[in-house]
Amino acid sequence: QVQLVESGGGLVQPGGSLRLSCVATGLDFRINVMGWYRQAPGQQRELVAGIGSGSSRNYADSVKGRFTISRDNAKNTVYLQMNSLKPEDTAVYFCNARNILTDIDSWGKGTLVTVSS
């Protein structure tokens, strides 16, 4: 059974930093594209950043230059380093894994990030 468990969310002041982690079990991590999505209250879930099995990366325009996604295949873990956080970054952040062979998506339960003074 696939499980994605996020951690690292919390309350941070504007301009601060957080590092999210997502540990994946029950899947072949190397053949999954990993991504971070977020959903703010009353809004649709949106892609924040993605990283391929070959470590190609893509980012939403709103986070470019501030967020960095990385993965450690030996630890089955994907990270999201978030710097220069803004109040509009407040959301529940979800980890996603997409199998490149089957296109099957798996989701974590999310971790809340609140940016507020």
**What proportion strand?**
over 45%
Task: Give the end-to-end Cα distance, rounded to a whole number of Å.
Answer: 40 Å
The largest β sheet comes out as:
7 strands, mixed
Helix content: under 10%
Q: How many strands appear in the DSSP assignment? A: 11
> What Rg is obtained from the alpha carbons, in whole angstroms?
13 Å
Run of helices and strands: EEEEEEEEEEE
Mean pLDDT: 96
Structural class: mainly beta
Tell me, briefly, the overall form: globular
Distinct helical segment count:
0
Low-confidence stretches: none
How would you portray this structure in words?
The protein has strands spanning 3-7, 10-12, 18-25, 32-39, 46-51, 57-59, 67-72, 77-82, 91-99, 105-107, 111-115. By secondary structure, it is mostly beta strands. Strands 2, 4, 5, 6, 9, 10 and 11 form a seven-stranded mixed beta sheet that branches. 31% of the residues are buried. The mean pLDDT is 96.
Helices and strands in order:
Elements: E1 3-7, E2 10-12, E3 18-25, E4 32-39, E5 46-51, E6 57-59, E7 67-72, E8 77-82, E9 91-99, E10 105-107, E11 111-115
Parallel strand pairs: 2-11
Antiparallel strand pairs: 1-3, 3-8, 4-5, 4-9, 5-6, 7-8, 9-10, 9-11
Task: Output the keywords.
117 residues; mainly beta; seven-stranded mixed sheet; four-stranded antiparallel sheet; 53% strand
